[in-house]
């Protein structure tokens, strides 16, 4: 069996930085140390050898808002690998009323094209006995331990509080982790109608219809509901101080609540929606929308302080033609932006190169923390003997200007167009196979495998807050007043 060795690099993990060679056999790291040799040498002189990025939030070939997101498992995972991300966790989205297992079959079929490893979250888009029962199969037989709940998209994907509470309790029983898209869908729907009635139909109105308060309210509500269900909680795409504040406060009280900002929200702001070009603004329509600088500062601070743990993309790419479904009515612009290829270089440039994040924090928020929260550490997210050889060799001196013309994604623009980035992959390995070599793509369609994730990691078994498990006491009364009238 042929071996590979990554030589002369500096290993950077979530907690250590040191010089070492890394030996790979059969897709797994088998030795880390000085002067290792192997059949093939990958020279990492001047580079950092890190766990490949994990993007815990993608929507590939997903039916949504009357169309399908345009990156599929081929172009999406090609984009991922091109930018140093070696695993994605995609959302399996049953239509309301559809069987979870049937939806999962569709996702299994689509994902056979994947070039890197992948896993799924299951969305709970409706509630009933069938969902309750199928959740157990999803966890125990299908290797999925995370369930997503939309608190927005009223009349489509949204679940109400009673459904969310029931599903959270089910997650607690199964040792699974609930995820929420936290926005108050009722308030959003009513703001949308008001804005349209006032003649505000352009893409800027999308942002006005989803102010930070709708996110802050929903984040607080989800945290309290999780607390009552006795389950930890993961809040996706945290974009504002109001939601971050709710997470901070919950964590300070001992609740296991995790927050995931997106690289887009860290770097791009609400002025994008004021652009005179309709296409420019519409291409940036996503939910939650981009915010002001003050919110960006809050998110950066949260990553440094540890109150926010993960940086994702919510990669849900639509072409300009698809965005134009919303000409004359902003509520019909398909929500979503790309970012899979750009997440690591943009976060390195705007985070590590500016001093806002250390290199170790960079690895933690782009890979290791995600692997731990999602129960796949240390198979993923680690440079350790026995870990999968999903490795990014990052050259901190390599530079490029982000441009749609040269990207792997299947869409015709890039929200980071013109941003100059440093810190690019010299090599990217997916389970030991070289997918990027000196900037050239060598990935293979169908190489990716599904990563099953178990429930009941200790952190997921813990109650949201510590409680002594005693049954509530029913009070026996002798004197019962006669009913009135
Ligand atoms: N937000 C988006 O912008 N797109 C996909 C789904 C979501 O919640
Ligand atoms: Zn969402
Ligand atoms: Zn423009
Ligand atoms: Zn999403």
Automatic annotation (TrEMBL):
Carbamylation allows a single lysine to coordinate two divalent metal cations. Homotetramer. The keyword Hydrolase applies. GO terms for molecular function: dihydropyrimidinase activity; metal ion binding. Belongs to the metallo-dependent hydrolases superfamily. Hydantoinase/dihydropyrimidinase family. Pfam families: Amidohydro_1. One of its GO terms (cellular component) is cytosol. Signal peptide: none annotated. It catalyses: 5,6-dihydrouracil + H2O = 3-(carbamoylamino)propanoate + H(+). The gene is hydA. It comes from Georhizobium profundi. Catalyzes the hydrolysis of dihydropyrimidines and of the structurally related DL-5-mono-substituted hydantoins, to produce N-carbamoyl-D-amino acids. This is D-hydantoinase/dihydropyrimidinase. Residues 48-419 form the Amidohydrolase-related domain. The modification N6-carboxylysine is found at residue 148. It is an enzyme of class 3 (hydrolase). GO terms for biological process: nucleobase-containing small molecule metabolic process; pyrimidine-containing compound metabolic process. Keywords: Hydrolase, Metal-binding, Zinc. Its cofactor is Zn(2+).
């Amino acid at each position: 069996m042929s071996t590979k060795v990554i030589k002369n690099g500096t290993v950077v993990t979530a907690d250590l930085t040191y010089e070492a060679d890394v030996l790979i056999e059969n897709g797994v790291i088998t030795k880390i140390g000085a002067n290792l040799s192997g059949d093939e040498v990958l020279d990492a002189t001047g580079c950092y050898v890190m766990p490949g990025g994990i993007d815990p939030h993608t929507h590939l070939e997903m039916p949504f808002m009357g169309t399908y997101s345009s990156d599929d498992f081929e172009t999406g995972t090609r984009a991922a690998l091109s930018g140093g991300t070696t695993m994605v966790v995609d959302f399996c989205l049953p239509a309301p009323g559809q069987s979870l297992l049937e939806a999962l079959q569709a996702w299994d079929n689509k994902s056979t094209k994947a070039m890197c490893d992948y896993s799924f979250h299951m969305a709970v888009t409706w509630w009933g006995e069938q969902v309750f029962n199928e959740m157990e199969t999803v966890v125990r037989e299908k290797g999925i331990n995370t369930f997503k709940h939309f608190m927005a998209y009223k009349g489509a994907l949204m679940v109400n509080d009673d459904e969310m509470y029931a599903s959270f309790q089910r997650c607690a029983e199964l040792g699974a982790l609930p995820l929420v898209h936290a926005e108050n869908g009722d308030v959003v729907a009513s703001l949308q109608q008001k804005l349209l009635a006032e003649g505000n139909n352009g893409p800027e109105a999308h942002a006005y219809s989803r102010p930070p308060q709708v996110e802050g309210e929903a984040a607080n509500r989800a945290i309290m509901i999780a607390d009552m269900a006795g389950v930890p909680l993961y809040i996706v795409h945290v974009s504002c101080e109001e939601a971050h504040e709710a997470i901070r406060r919950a964590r300070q009280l001992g609740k296991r609540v995790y927050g995931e900002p997106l690289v887009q929200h860290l770097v791009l702001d609400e002025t994008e929606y004021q652009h005179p070009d309709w296409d420019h603004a519409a291409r940036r329509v996503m939910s939650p929308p981009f915010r002001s600088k003050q919110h960006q500062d809050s998110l950066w601070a949260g990553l440094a302080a540890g109150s926010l743990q993960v940086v994702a993309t919510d990669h849900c790419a639509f072409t300009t033609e698809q965005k134009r479904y919303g000409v004359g009515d902003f509520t019909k612009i398909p929500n979503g932006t790309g970012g899979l290829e750009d997440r690591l270089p943009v976060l390195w440039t705007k985070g590590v190169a500016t001093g806002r994040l250390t290199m170790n924090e960079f690895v933690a928020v782009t890979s290791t923390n995600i692997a731990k929260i999602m129960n796949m550490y240390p198979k993923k997210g680690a440079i350790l003997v026995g870990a999968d050889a999903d490795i990014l060799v990052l050259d901190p001196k390599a530079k490029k200007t982000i441009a749609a013309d040269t990207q792997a994604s299947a869409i015709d623009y890039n929200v980071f167009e013109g941003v100059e980035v440093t810190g690019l992959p010299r090599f990217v390995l997916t389970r030991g196979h070289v997918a990027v070599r000196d900037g050239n793509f060598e990935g293979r369609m169908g190489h990716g495998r599904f990563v099953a994730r178990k429930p009941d990691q200790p952190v997921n078994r813990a109650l949201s807050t510590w409680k002594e498990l005693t049954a509530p006491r029913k009070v026996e009364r002798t004197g019962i007043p006669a009913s009135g009238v």
